[in-house]
Design a protein that fits this description.
- There is one protein chain.
- The chain is 35% helix and 22% strand.
- With 264 residues, it is α+β, with helices and mostly antiparallel strands.
- It has a single domain, classed as Thiolase/Chalcone synthase (Peroxisomal Thiolase, Chain A, domain 1, 3-Layer(aba) Sandwich), CATH 3.40.47.10.
- A hairpin with a 5-residue loop joins strand 7 (245-250) and strand 8.
Length: 264
Amino acid sequence: MNLSVFIDGIGVLAPGLESWSAAAEVLAGRAAYAPAPTVLPAPAVLPPAERRRASRLVKTALGAGLEAVNHAGADASSLATVFASSSGDGHNCHAICETLASDDRSVSPTRFHNSVHNAAAGYWGIATGAMAPSQVLCAFDAGFAAGLLEAAVQVASAQTPVLLVVYDAEYPEPIFSKRPVPDAGAIALLLSPARGPRSLAAAKVSLGDTPMARMDDAAQEKLRSDIPAMRGLPLLQLIARGQAGGASLEYLAPLTLQVDVAPC
């Protein structure tokens, strides 16, 4: 299996990285990485009622996804999407567990509809008016690779652009002690079947078994390993540096996902 796609737009939102432009400077070695809490943009594209209900996880996904679309100059309403999160909305899960452990076990409708794994995809449809197919998946720490593989298969089979959004956010205690994701983070890629005027890189995606790539910088490696959505950082580093090369990304052991890129 060897799938060919073009990367037309990128969005990044993570601790110390508020955008793809900021991340590119860091990953290319032109700026030092300074860890800082993730700053989530207000989801102005949502109607007021949904804006109030949007969780940290939803804001993270929307922020990165919209940046990738805008970066590519694409129409969000026309794009098929793949959303991937390692474990969903931790804060909402925590709140529901607290309710179920209390004397009043009535879960609010808002909490309930935000608890489903496809909540971010639903908010995306509300925000953009998108009616194209949307896939939502979970593969724990392999979520970035699984999402990229799914999106690449769709691009190759349907010959249409697909937006990939991989996103995660933290759990409060006591779940945090079992799933220690420290903050919110997301990577979004707009993939296309053919090279366009805004294409950043050509990519070939295949399964392999080589050891997964790690970041040379200790702080960047901690970011990559702490937040599952950031497992795509080695791929972004190649793109930021304008280098041809390969990144072996964490997938379902013993397999890895090999992504070979060349700048456009």
